[in-house]
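Q: My labmate handed me this sequence with no annotations at all. I'd like to see what the chain might look like in three dimensions before we decide whether it's worth expressing. Could you predict it?
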Amino acid sequence: MAPNVALVYGSFFMGDSERDIKTIRDTFSQCEGLEVAEPVQGTDFDFDSLRDCKVLIVCTSSQYGFPPKNFEKFAHHLLTAATEHPGCLSHLQHAVFGNGDDTYFKTYMNMPRYMDMLLEKAGSKRLYARGENGEPCAPLDTATCRCADWAPAMWKAAEASVKEGSSFKAVPFDALWLKKKSEHHHKVTQWDMKKLAKKMVGKTPATPAMFSKL
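A: Here is what I predict for the chain of 214 residues:
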């Protein structure tokens, strides 16, 4: 079976999200109908490959609410998908795990939250409550979520959701806060393409072929 689960990450020099995406990969055990690809940073990820995927797992950090350099290309394509081609990822199910620096209070956990939101706008279904490192996670009954605990539970949910197929109902965006609120905030700073382009270095990434067929 060809890989049908994509793992994409964006990480800064401390490597928190690069570490966590490896944990997510390593905790995968045999799941019927699922084959997991190796983790790929956002700049190297082939967005067109999502056409053949069932599940997408994203792990990212943020700074001032914007993506790491090695995740900008993926963020650019996802924003395009959500704003210009809503529904184009309706065949997908997804989960997001995030890291945040609480010294940037106003934009704390913004990238994982915004990517989770954009995936939903693009049509993908959330298969498990978003994991936010050190934050509450209702399904795990914890006030301090850790990737090592979140990942195995997420994989169980992924297997169940894929078996349900089109009848699967997406998990709500705020599912992680059902038992306890964040000690920081629940906000999402929604930047647009113009603001993202100012942050990006180099040329605008080529448009994925999948968009031209929509």
